[in-house]
């Protein structure tokens, strides 16, 4: 140890109280008595004492002369005799130190005569100037003090520094005997009321006192506190700063070294029994940290602690946060981290925040003992109760507090919550953000460090989680586990019982909202997922990205990490407001469309459902849409992540779909069960009503984005990249793109797209694009229509003048899909399948035989049925459905897949203007009919001839002719029902009847049809007797042809009769011969 110089303080007095007699068996008290000074009271009043009381610097030379009487005692002085008799027990009168301690302690409670006060002050001051004090100090603490110490004034300072070095286990520190330690601390304590009594500090800080504390009167520790408050000022001398730091370190070891703190909190310490633990060593009991923890515990439990004491505690808590070196555990266990990362940042709490940042993992790893020391210091200082305790945070966040949190009372614990609410917002500044997260990292690891949470939840924590007192810990239930217990109970249902109180649940939700901002604020998540965070999410550095990353890789996580991520996701599905960043991004759409749901105190998944339903509103911004979609993508990994679905269907899942975890598989399992029960007309559905209702919601949500259908997305990922690379996800746009490019899809994707179309055609409500584009038209035309007949209703109103063009275009697309029969079950048109289930195998079996399971028949079956319709051979139900298809395709050629396939080139060559028309009213078909002779492609010519043939059966399938002859049909054929060519025959007879005058346009169109049919008969003769008969029956000259056929049959019959009689006569003549 370096040489220690003597300091004029009270070491001798303390030493002799506890040590054995020295040299000649003289007692310590005897030595004190022989070296004591009889003080002239009048001289005190005139010289030294006034100087001290008035804040001046008393000079030793001004002290009264010494009286070296061997038996002098304080008890014999008249100035203190009355107070001594009143306050101190008689057995202590012979011991000057006992008398001094008694009067020193009791003067805080009762008034002591001024002359006695002056006597005591000078007695302490003058005793420290006697050389014999030094000799006794050297004798008692000889293992600490070097032999060559002879300089005046630094012995005690050296011993105090040695005590600090030993506590911090600094290199080269000497061991100090317990009795010496006790003596040093007692000397520091007795000099705590007036800084003049600490001679080393007095001489070190004389100029600084004049500079910073000129108007601060001496006494009651006021000058100490003033100098402490200016310790880190640039103008403070280094020597004074060092002396102040040493005294602060002594205060942390024994709070009584601070006169003001000991005085202010004396009653409270006694009241709350903070010094009554007989099992605890006195040294531990006297530590500043123990006092702070004991009294803070009382405050947090709602007990009354005097305002004066709380003010003193606030000062010393701030002192601990400002200077890390005042905590020996920090100095001892964090030495490596300070040297590596935090050197040169000693002032204003910057080193401590640097260590916090290291503890967060932002600047490397930290030793466990250092982490524990930091956590302990945060609990002792308790900055969560008052942000001003943390000077670094206070200075960094001052501007944010003035703007964002100005409505909160200064020093209120809610300031920290307010700052967290504005984290990552425009009002937050970077420096404040760093300091806030560094502090919150440690507060999050002990639920008691959030005073509001502790106040509201201490009863619940004790009742449900077996929590102990504020400053008590348990290995069975560590502080970090208490909050996990609380939030597990926060979301229990009434049936599960043992729920949190409402106030506590609100606070738990607040903490969860804060933790969602940064994964490091969740201790359990960070501990269990440390490996996975490094493996999968090392590049995800933006706020909120780490948890999203873990959710994206849920299946690849280790089991303990997967469990905690799954629990958090399941929790968020019930209360999406926990996702703070998402809520901020979605604020506009929440205010516009979901405010009623958001205002509910209890969120049971309604808010997320509302956001999903309004995901494509104009108020929805990109950040919100991405966040909502991400949550939907996470939900498909496990049905538990959809709270409403889980609660509605958990019993059905256990009964019907056990061992299935993925939500998409559960939805498929349940929907298949519902469909099978419906088709089989079972009396009682196996899936409950509430589950079927929620199942519909889930199916509708999944139809919006191809990524929400994992099997479809995985099967078509390659095709999406090739055909739909510029199409954005969402709004079912990618799905629509795949449908439009169906012929170019790979076989696997093609099969999946068909499966999707099959479901949509069976249940049009699941067709997201159709329902979105035609939303207003559905409200206008189909409010009373069943969901499964929605498309049929829209088709019926398609040509209405009030129909929206975009909706009409979408309806046309769906009609094209329906008419393009995909496989032998024709599941894309359920109405046609049901109506023609007997006709299809009867008339079109040859086409079915050629089809493979996944082959695209491109409307061949529908074309087959059309021809049979023209032959009038279909059943009534099937005929009605084919008539509708014919009417629709006659207006829009795109609804006839065979015509579109075979005539694409011819349409482009012969009818480009008609095809380019936005509104299709049959112009393309009419153009092809008119240009029949110019058509070169045989397949196209055949299809046009089929159209002509079909038009004979019903004028409704020839929209141009029907429009031209509408008035004539009304006048001439009103009594004739449509179908089977009846109205067409009526018009043809009227055309031949010279008495009837048809409209010129109708007459012209009819004549054109006759010419076309004549040409068709030539180029496409009947293929069989049935076709020939049908051609005759549908011919405009049917009467003439039938008459000629009848006449021919009559002539043949008569000829037969004549020939028969001649033959009979000849045979008779031969017999007669």
Topology, element by element:
Elements: H1 11-18, H2 28-35, H3 41-46, H4 48-53, H5 78-87, H6 96-106, H7 114-127, H8 131-140, H9 155-167, H10 178-190, H11 199-204, H12 206-212, H13 222-229, H14 238-253, H15 259-271, H16 282-286, H17 288-300, H18 307-322, H19 328-333, H20 335-341, H21 350-360, H22 368-381, H23 391-396, H24 398-404, H25 414-421, H26 430-443, H27 451-465, H28 479-490, H29 502-515, H30 523-528, H31 530-536, H32 545-552, H33 559-574, H34 580-585, H35 587-593, H36 595-598, H37 606-613, H38 622-635, H39 643-656, H40 663-679, H41 689-702, H42 710-723, H43 733-740, H44 747-762, H45 768-773, H46 775-781, H47 790-796, H48 805-819, H49 830-835, H50 839-843, H51 845-850, H52 860-870, H53 876-891, H54 897-910, H55 912-916, H56 923-930, H57 938-953, H58 959-964, H59 966-972, H60 982-992, H61 1000-1019, H62 1025-1033, H63 1038-1072
Tell me roughly what share of residues is in helical segments: 55-70%
> In this structure, how is the largest beta sheet organized?
none
Q: What number is the mean pLDDT?
A: 80
Strand content: under 5%
Radius of gyration: 50 Å
Distance between the termini: 172 Å
Low-confidence parts? 5-70, 277-282, 821-825
Oligomer: single chain
Q: Helix segment count?
A: 63
Shape: rod-shaped
Helix/strand class = mainly alpha
Number of separate strands: 0
């Amino acid at each position: 140890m370096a040489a220690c110089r003597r300091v004029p303080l009270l070491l001798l007095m303390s030493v002799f109280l506890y040590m054995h007699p020295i040299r000649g068996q003289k007692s310590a008290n005897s030595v004190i008595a022989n070296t004591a000074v009889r003080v002239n009271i009048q001289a005190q009043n005139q010289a030294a004492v006034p100087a001290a009381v008035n804040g001046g610097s008393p000079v030793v030379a001004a002290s009264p002369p010494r009286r070296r009487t061997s038996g002098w005692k304080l008890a014999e002085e008249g100035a203190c005799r009355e107070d001594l008799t009143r306050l101190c027990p008689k057995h202590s009168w012979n011991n000057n130190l006992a008398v001094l301690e008694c009067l020193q302690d009791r003067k805080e409670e009762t008034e002591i005569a001024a002359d006695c006060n002056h006597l005591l002050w000078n007695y302490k001051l003058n005793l420290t100037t006697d050389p014999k004090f030094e000799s006794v100090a050297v004798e008692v603490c000889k293992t600490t003090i070097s032999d060559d110490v002879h300089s005046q004034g630094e012995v005690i300072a050296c011993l105090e520094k040695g005590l600090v070095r030993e506590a911090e286990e600094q290199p080269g520190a000497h061991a100090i005997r317990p009795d010496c330690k006790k003596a040093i601390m007692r000397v520091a304590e007795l000099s705590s009321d007036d800084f003049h009594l600490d001679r080393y500090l007095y001489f070190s800080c004389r100029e600084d006192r004049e500079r910073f504390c000129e108007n601060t009167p001496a006494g009651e520790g006021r000058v100490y506190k003033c100098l402490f408050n200016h310790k880190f000022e640039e103008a403070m001398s280094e020597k004074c700063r060092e002396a102040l730091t040493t005294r602060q370190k002594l205060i942390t070891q024994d709070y009584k070294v601070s006169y003001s703190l000991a005085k202010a909190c004396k009653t409270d310490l006694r009241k709350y029994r903070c010094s009554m633990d007989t099992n605890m060593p006195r040294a531990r009991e006297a530590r500043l940290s123990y006092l702070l923890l004991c009294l803070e515990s009382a405050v947090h439990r709602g007990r009354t602690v005097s305002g004066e004491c709380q003010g003193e505690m606030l000062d010393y808590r701030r002192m601990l946060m400002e200077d890390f070196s005042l905590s020996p555990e920090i100095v001892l266990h964090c030495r490596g981290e300070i040297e590596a990362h935090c050197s040169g940042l000693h002032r204003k709490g910057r080193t401590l925040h640097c260590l916090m940042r290291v503890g967060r993992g932002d600047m490397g790893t930290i030793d466990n003992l250092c982490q524990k020391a930091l956590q302990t210091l945060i609990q002792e200082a308790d900055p969560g109760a008052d942000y001003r305790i943390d000077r670094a945070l206070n200075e960094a966040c001052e501007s944010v507090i003035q703007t964002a949190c100005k409505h909160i009372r200064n020093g209120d614990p809610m300031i920290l919550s307010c700052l967290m609410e504005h984290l990552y917002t425009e009002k937050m500044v970077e420096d404040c953000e760093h300091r806030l997260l560094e502090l919150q990292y440690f507060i999050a690891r002990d639920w008691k460090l959030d005073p509001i949470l502790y106040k509201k939840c201490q009863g619940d924590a004790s009742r449900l989680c077996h929590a102990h007192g504020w400053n008590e810990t348990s290995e069975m239930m560590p502080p970090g586990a208490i909050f996990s217990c609380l939030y597990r109970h926060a979301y229990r249902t009434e049936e599960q019982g043992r729920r949190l109180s409402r106030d506590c649940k609100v606070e738990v939700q607040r903490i969860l909202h804060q933790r969602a901002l940064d994964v490091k604020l969740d201790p359990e998540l960070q501990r269990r997922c440390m490996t996975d965070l490094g493996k999968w999410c090392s590049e995800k550095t933006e706020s909120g990205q780490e948890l999203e990353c873990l959710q994206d890789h849920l299946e690849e996580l280790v089991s303990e990490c997967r469990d905690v991520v799954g629990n958090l996701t399941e929790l968020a599905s019930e209360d999406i407001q926990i996702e703070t960043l998402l809520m901020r991004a979605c604020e506009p759409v929440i205010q516009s469309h979901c405010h009623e749901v958001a205002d509910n105190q209890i969120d049971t998944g309604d808010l997320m459902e509302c956001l999903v339903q309004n995901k494509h509103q104009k108020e929805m911004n990109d950040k919100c849409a991405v966040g909502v979609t991400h949550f939907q993508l996470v939900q498909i990994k496990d049905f538990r992540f959809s709270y409403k679905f889980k609660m509605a269907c958990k019993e059905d899942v256990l009964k019907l779909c056990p061992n299935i975890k993925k939500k998409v598989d559960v939805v498929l399992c349940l929907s298949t069960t519902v469909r099978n029960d419906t088709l089989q007309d079972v009396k009682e559905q196996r899936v409950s009503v509430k589950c079927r209702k929620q199942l519909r919601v889930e199916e509708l949500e999944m139809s919006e984005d191809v990524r929400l259908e994992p099997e479809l997305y995985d099967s078509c990922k390659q095709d999406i990249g090739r055909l739909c690379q510029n199409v954005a996800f969402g709004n079912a746009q990618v799905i629509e793109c795949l449908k439009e490019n169906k012929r170019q899809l790979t076989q696997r994707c093609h099969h999946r797209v068909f499966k999707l179309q099959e479901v949509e055609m069976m249940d049009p409500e699941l067709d997201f694009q159709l329902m979105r584009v035609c939303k207003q038209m559905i409200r206008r035309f189909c409010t009373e229509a069943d969901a499964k007949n929605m498309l049929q209703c829209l088709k019926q109103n398609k040509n209405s003048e009030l129909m929206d063009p975009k909706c009409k275009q979408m309806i046309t697309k769906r009609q094209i899909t329906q008419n393009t029969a995909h496989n032998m079950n024709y599941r894309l048109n359920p109405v046609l399948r049901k109506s023609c289930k007997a006709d299809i195998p009867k008339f079109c079996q040859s086409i079915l035989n050629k089809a493979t399971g996944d082959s695209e028949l491109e409307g061949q079956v529908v074309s087959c049925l059309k021809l049979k319709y023209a032959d009038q051979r279909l059943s009534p139900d099937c005929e009605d459905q084919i008539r509708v298809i014919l009417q629709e395709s006659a207006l829009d050629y795109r609804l006839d897949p065979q015509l579109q396939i075979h005539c694409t080139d011819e349409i482009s060559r012969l009818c480009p203007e008609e095809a380019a028309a936005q509104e299709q009213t049959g112009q393309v078909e009419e153009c092809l009919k008119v240009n029949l002779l110019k058509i070169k492609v045989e397949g196209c010519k055949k299809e046009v001839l089929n159209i002509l043939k079909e038009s004979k059966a019903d004028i409704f399938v020839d929209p141009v002719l029907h429009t031209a002859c509408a008035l004539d049909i009304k006048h001439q054929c009103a009594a004739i029902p449509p179908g089977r060519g009846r109205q067409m025959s009526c018009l043809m007879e009227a055309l031949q009847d010279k008495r009837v005058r048809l409209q010129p346009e109708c007459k012209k169109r009819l004549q054109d049809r006759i010419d076309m049919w004549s040409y068709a008969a030539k180029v496409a003769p009947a293929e069989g007797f049935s076709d020939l008969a049908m051609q005759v029956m549908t011919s405009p000259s049917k009467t003439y042809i039938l008459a000629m056929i009848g006449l021919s049959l009559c002539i043949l019959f008569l000829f037969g009769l004549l020939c028969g009689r001649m033959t009979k006569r000849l045979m008779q003549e031969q017999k007669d011969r």
